[in-house]
Specification:
Number of domains: 1
Keywords: Methyltransferase, Transferase
Domain Methyltransferase type: 55-142
Number of strands: 8
Strand order of the largest sheet: 1-7-8-6-5-2-3-4
Largest sheet: 8 strands, mixed
Radius of gyration: 19 Å
Helix content: 25-40%
GO molecular function: S-adenosylmethionine-dependent methyltransferase activity
Shape: globular
CATH architecture: 3-Layer(aba) Sandwich
Pfam families: Methyltransf_11
Protein name: SAM-dependent methyltransferase
Distance between the termini: 71 Å
Number of helices: 8
Order of helices and strands: HEHEEHEEHEHHEHHE
CATH class: Alpha Beta
């Protein structure tokens, strides 16, 4: 008979596994999340095939960009979390892409009108004036972003009841894009079922997706983790809902 893995062992597994890059392979068999219906990676690949110079902001470990089958002549990526930079450089070397380490709150280190395509998957924040500045006239910005209150059920399981989300609203993104002089040509939203099958998966996810529970550590949140572990054992899983939106904007200036 197989021995049941203990609460302490699951915590240790989730706390020890590496979280560099932006892949979620470690969760295989332990958690699942529905994919947005628009197929962001496929859209990016299609746009890249006809671009001349492209930029990926907040590339993570370059996982999405590495899937592009026909990269443009010039391909550049930025990343603000330093542990991700060598991962991205290794992943994007076959595409001959350059990866630039940046500060999250700094202007983009590129000249005006440098790119005809800018993409970004799950940016920490979108600096719309900077995106507009580096886009060539007629250029496109395509981004899949985190929606308001994403996996809120998990945040509240750890932190208790929270006020209504005040950030990451699609309508605010549209307004900010327009204020920067861009024309929004597409906006789509999706709510995606996210299922955690053990507390180790929860710990790993909270270490990686740091805005879910800001300042998360196992020790500081041990009582809440114990309660959630008991709930998962009793119910078989814990279900939350991720929220995503896709926004595409164009630089229509002459």
């Amino acid at each position: 008979m197989t021995r049941e893995v203990t609460f302490e062992e699951l915590l240790a597994e989730g706390a020890a596994a590496p979280v560099e890059g932006w892949a979620f392979d470690w969760l295989a068999g332990r958690a699942t999340e529905e994919r947005p219906p628009w197929g962001y990676a496929r859209l990016v690949a299609a746009r890249m095939s006809s671009a001349d110079a492209a930029l990926d902001i907040d590339t993570g470990g370059g996982e999405v960009l590495a899937e592009v089958p026909r990269p443009p002549r010039l391909l550049t990526a930025t990343e603000a979390w330093l542990p991700n930079v060598p991962v991205a450089r290794a992943n994007l070397a076959p595409l001959k892409a350059s990866v630039v380490a940046v500060r999250a709150d700094a202007p983009l280190p590129f000249r005006d009108d440098a790119f005809d395509l800018v993409v970004s998957r799950h940016p920490v924040r979108t600096d719309w004036p900077e995106v507009a500045r580096v886009l060539r006239p007629g250029g496109t910005f395509l981004s899949q972003q985190i929606g308001p209150g994403t996996v809120r059920e998990l945040s509240e399981a750890i932190l208790g009841p929270l006020p209504p989300p005040a950030r990451r609203h699609p309508a605010r993104a549209v307004a900010d894009a327009q204020a920067a002089g861009l024309t929004v040509v597409d906006l789509r939203e999706a709510t995606l079922r996210t299922v955690f099958h053990d507390i180790g998966a929860v710990v790993w996810f909270l270490r990686k997706v740091v805005w879910t529970v800001p300042g998360f550590t196992v020790q500081a949140h041990l009582p809440a983790l114990a309660r959630l572990h008991d709930r998962i054992r009793a119910e078989g899983s814990f279900v939350a809902h991720a929220r995503r939106f896709l926004i595409e904007a164009r630089a229509d200036r002459p």
